[in-house]
Design brief:
About 70% of the residues lie in helices and about 5% in strands. It has a two-stranded antiparallel ribbon with strand order 1-2.
Length: about 170
C-alpha cells in the first residue's frame, strides 16, 4: 500500500510537531497568545495582523520546541547530578570504611594497598602515592603531596593516604 519508507524517529518528530501546531492554533483561537511569539510574528509580518497569525503558529511552535528541549536538558542534568551525588556518597562511604580499617588493622591495610597497587613492597608505593621524603636535621619525614602533615615513617604516610583516598589509585 505505502511505498515510502518511514523511519520511527521521523514519524515521531512529525507527530510531535503536529501536536505543537495544535497547541499554538488553540492558543490563537482562544486569544491566549504567547506575547513573545506574537511580537515576533507581527515584526516578521511588518505589522500585518492577518499575516502575523500564520507566522504566530510557526514562531510559537519553535518556542514550544525550545521549551521542551530546555526541559529535557534540565531533566538530563538533574539525572546526571543525582548519579554524581550517589557516586560521591559511595566514595565517602568507601573512604570512611577505609579510615576505620586503617585504625583497626593498619598492617593489613598496608598489605591490601600493596596488593591493589600491584607493587612488591611499601617503598614502591611512594611515587604512586606522591609521597616525598625530606630530611630535617638528622631525621627523615614523609609527606604526601598537598599535605603539610609530616610522618615519621612511610607506613604512617601510606595509612594517611588510605584514610584520605581509600584503596583507590590516584587518577
Amino acid at each position: 500500500m505505502f511505498t515510502k519508507k518511514y523511519d520511527q524517529a521521523s514519524v515521531e518528530m512529525r507527530m510531535a510537531e503536529h501536536q505543537l501546531i495544535s497547541v499554538a492554533t488553540e492558543e490563537l483561537e482562544r486569544g491566549e497568545k504567547d506575547i513573545g511569539s506574537w511580537g515576533r510574528a507581527l515584526m516578521d509580518a511588518k505589522g500585518n495582523r492577518e499575516a502575523a497569525e500564520g507566522l504566530y503558529i510557526k514562531h510559537r511552535v519553535e518556542s514550544l520546541k525550545d521549551e521542551l528541549q530546555a526541559e529535557l536538558l534540565f531533566q538530563q542534568q538533574a539525572r546526571l547530578l543525582a548519579i554524581r551525588e550517589k557516586e560521591v556518597q559511595a566514595e565517602v562511604e568507601r573512604t570512611e570504611k577505609a579510615s576505620e580499617y586503617v585504625v583497626k588493622y593498619p598492617d593489613e591495610a598496608v598489605e591490601e594497598i600493596i596488593r591493589v597497587f600491584n607493587v612488591g613492597r611499601i617503598n614502591d608505593l611512594m611515587p604512586l602515592m606522591n609521597i616525598d621524603v625530606k630530611a630535617v636535621g638528622e631525621k627523615y619525614f614523609y609527606y604526601i603531596a598537598g599535605s603539610e602533615q609530616q610522618h615519621e615513617s612511610l607506613k604512617e604516610a601510606v595509612l594517611e593516604y588510605i584514610s584520605t583516598n581509600g584503596f583507590n589509585k590516584p587518577s
